[in-house]
Write a structure and sequence with these properties.
It is rod-shaped and about 115 Å long. The longest helix has 77 residues. It is built from one helix and no strands. By secondary structure, the chain is mainly α. It has one domain.
Length: 79
């Protein structure tokens, strides 16, 4: 009888350890997925900020070029 109880205890401990390992593995997988998602969001934000800065520079450059061209044309027409 003691052997059966010992075997049953061993099996129960094995099942509990298996569940504990499974929960730990799932927790690690969730952490890995969360870190990957955070890195992806940071990358998208960084690239978005860079594109916005480039857009602002292009708009300012366009405004300067249009202003210079307008005044040169006005000088030619009036001169």
């Amino acid at each position: 009888m003691a052997l059966r109880e010992s075997l049953a205890q061993f099996e129960q401990a094995f099942v509990e350890e298996t569940y504990a390992h499974r929960e730990q593995r799932e927790a690690v997988e969730r952490q890995v997925a969360a870190r990957a998602d955070e890195r992806r969001r940071a990358k998208v934000h960084r690239h978005g900020s860079l594109r916005f800065a480039l857009l602002v520079l292009v708009l300012i450059g366009t405004a300067v070029l249009v202003t210079v061209a307008m005044f040169e044309t006005l000088y030619i027409v009036m001169g």
